[in-house]
Amino acid sequence: MNTILALIFTIVILVSPFFSIAFLLYRFPKLEEDYYVERFGSLYDKLNLKKGRCITIYIAHFFIRRFLISVAVVFSDFLYF
Q1: How far apart are the first and last CA of the chain?
Q2: Which of 9, 40, 56, 76 is a plausible cystine mate for 24, CB 3.0–4.6 Å?
């Protein structure tokens, strides 16, 4: 059971950056509307949308960086620094 849950969480963590980028790129022209700011504003908070669509890559970078930190913490007992 624990292995299945770990696998599910790993898949979610690895897929979520791609899903968030796809969502933001698909909805990019509407992201400044009040409805989207209220509903999804925390996903792209404090990012300058006027720089263009390439700013959404920062979100994937954030997810990947957090994932690598968590992997380093989990496997820190096996690594010798």
Answers
A1: 32
A2: 56
One-letter amino acid at 70 equals S
Asked if residues 27 and 35 have their Cβ atoms less than 8 Å apart, the reply is: no
Cβ distance 36 to 27 under 8 Å? yes
- Contact in structure between 74 and 21 (CB atoms under 8 Å): no
- Summarize pLDDT for 16-29 with one digit per residue, the tens: 888 888 888 898 88
| Structure tokens that stand for 27 in this block | 């909805």
The count of residues in the chain is: 81
Reported as a single tens digit per residue, the pLDDT across 1-16 is 788 998 898 898 888 8
